[in-house]
Write a structure and sequence with these properties.
307 residues; 3% strand
């Protein structure tokens, strides 16, 4: 196994994990604060990618398209919360699941109506095309490195917001005891709208940044939603720190496992079926990890205080 190849796949896993964290952080905020099961979170990721592609096509500048996609997705999230989800807070989770599943279908069809069924290519910003030499013998795509750096910066800003601001204090208090926060005069409805908008913006940022690496197409948010729920379960529902660590674990295990496990099994067993078995096991690794974590820590690696 080449050391350089291992380092490259590790960086790819880190980039994938950072993208998962942007998704999981938003969904963790929404579920942890609002107690809302939002299956349409992947649709906001998809819409962020579409907004970025549309903005890049309109302006001729992919970076501007990405910058425009974040506030556009935030506004879309606020509208969805005001129009559709606000009436669901006092309903049980089954009603929330049914409603947000309907939103998945709505947004997928809306994307087909506005942009068509064909995949839309999204160019990488010109300044971030090509490769950068991290050290002799190891070159890495500039755009993937930019995703890692932006994700780490967002994680730091989110930590500062939650831990060192008045809004963060209200968010943490709302997660612990919503009736008491409301009784103290805090506008819970406005707080929920802000939290949902923030979660939507994070999903939109993830979709916009990954758009140059993937084809932007209807339904692209559905597979990533499953991985996002896996991250939240492993990290601990409602825990931003847990979401960050679990996202990195899932990203690294999934990427490195898919890259090396089939080849490793071929070396061990020397059979044609080893490749098929390796590919199957690689796709199962993150679910095996989730099962192991839940066996030893049923509330996740870092459950919020008080659980």
């Amino acid at each position: 196994m080449s050391t350089t190849l291992l380092l490259i796949q590790t960086l790819n896993g880190l980039q994938f994990g950072i993208m998962l964290f942007l998704m999981a952080a938003g969904l963790t905020l929404v579920f942890g604060i609002m107690n809302l099961v939002n299956l349409a979170h992947g649709s906001l990721y998809m819409m962020g990618a579409y907004f970025a592609a549309a903005g890049a096509s309109w302006s001729g500048n992919p970076l501007l398209g990405i910058l425009l996609a974040v506030p556009a997705t935030l506004l879309l999230g606020v509208l969805v919360e005001l129009i559709t989800l606000r009436s669901l807070y006092q309903r049980d989770h089954l009603d929330q699941v049914l409603c947000t599943f309907g939103l998945i279908l709505f947004f997928n069809e809306l994307a087909r109506l506005l942009w068509g069924s064909a995949a839309i290519p999204m160019p990488i910003p010109e300044a971030l095309r090509g490769f950068v030499t991290l050290f002799p013998g190891l070159i890495y795509p500039k755009w993937r490195l930019a995703i890692i750096l932006v994700g780490l910066l967002v994680a730091l800003l989110l930590y500062l917001l939650i831990s060192h601001t008045r809004l963060g204090m209200l968010i943490r208090a709302g997660a612990s005891n919503r009736p008491m926060v409301g009784a103290l005069g805090v506008n819970i409805s406005l707080l929920f709208t802000l939290v949902f908008g923030l979660g939507a913006a994070l999903a939109g940022l993830a979709g916009a940044m990954v758009a140059p690496l993937l084809s932007v197409e209807p339904g692209m948010g559905d597979p990533i939603l499953i991985l996002t729920f896996v991250v939240i379960v492993i990290g601990g529902i409602g825990s931003i720190r847990g979401a960050f660590i679990a996202a990195l674990l899932v990203g690294l295990i999934d990427t490195v496992g898919r890259a090396f496990l089939p080849a490793l099994l071929r070396e061990l067993f020397q059979t044609q079926s080893a490749s098929t078995l390796g590919a199957a096991l690689a796709s199962m690794l993150i679910y095996i990890l989730m099962a192991a974590v839940l066996f030893f820590r049923p509330r996740g690696l870092f459950p919020p205080k008080g659980q």
